[in-house]
Amino acid sequence: METNLDWFFYEREAREKGFSAVCGIDEAGRGPLAGPVCAAAVILPLGCEIPGLNDSKKLTEKKREALFDVIREKALAYGIGWGTVEEIDRVNILQATFLAMGRAVEALGVPADYALIDGNRMPPLPIPGETIVKGDAKSASVAAASILAKVSRDRVLRQLDQEHPEYGFGKHKGYGTKAHYQAIKAYGLLPEHRRSFLKNLEEK
């Protein structure tokens, strides 16, 4: 954890407003061409020390995997939620992300009464909350949620890589790399590919 940053500023602010179970929420997988979108919600004890905690994008895969277990151990509660490929194609990626966030909150073992959401769009949740732009680099609970969501989704894509090694999911995790587009061209689309993201495939 960055020592010069007040990692629990937003959590304490919410506490001062009278909320007692503040969860951080973040997602992983909004941009890829394949696989579900994943969201996580995490309630941390106020002032909880998790060495190395940071925005998941700034961490190596190995470090995220190690922190995944530490976060689950130290959190008061955590929940993982998913938006399926079918939902992404049917209602769009933003709405599917909101569904995943709602499911993550529902999956919390301890009911949250306030949410800190990474980004600038507030999902429809059964509890009040606020959005924080770059929240995964400013709030401990949002950073923790970003790691749980990223690791959970990466594990799904690694499993998909086992089933379809020719697509290279283990490396690109479903993102639109040159190698991924070449694999789609060579082998066609899988059920796990987001059709709504690949409408202009002929132009690639």
TrEMBL record:
Q: Which residues bind a divalent metal cation?
A: 26-27, 118
Superkingdom of this protein's organism: Bacteria
| Alphabetized GO MF terms | manganese ion binding; RNA binding; RNA-DNA hybrid ribonuclease activity
GO cellular component assignments = cytoplasm; ribonuclease H2 complex
Protein location: Cytoplasm
Q: Which Pfam families match?
A: RNase_HII
The record's EC number reads 3.1.26.4
**GO terms of biological process kind:** DNA replication, removal of RNA primer; mismatch repair
Q: How is the cofactor bound?
A: Manganese or magnesium. Binds 1 divalent metal ion per monomer in the absence of substrate. May bind a second metal ion after substrate binding.
Q: Which PROSITE patterns has this protein been placed in?
A: RNASE_H_2
Cofactor section: Mn(2+); Mg(2+)
Task: Using the record's annotation, list all stretches that form the RNase H type-2 domain.
Answer: 20-204
User: What is the documented function of this protein?
Assistant: Endonuclease that specifically degrades the RNA of RNA-DNA hybrids.
Give the UniProt family note: Belongs to the RNase HII family.
Q: What is this protein called?
A: Ribonuclease HII
Q: What is the lineage of its organism?
A: Bacteria, Bacillati, Bacillota, Clostridia, Eubacteriales
The encoding gene is rnhB
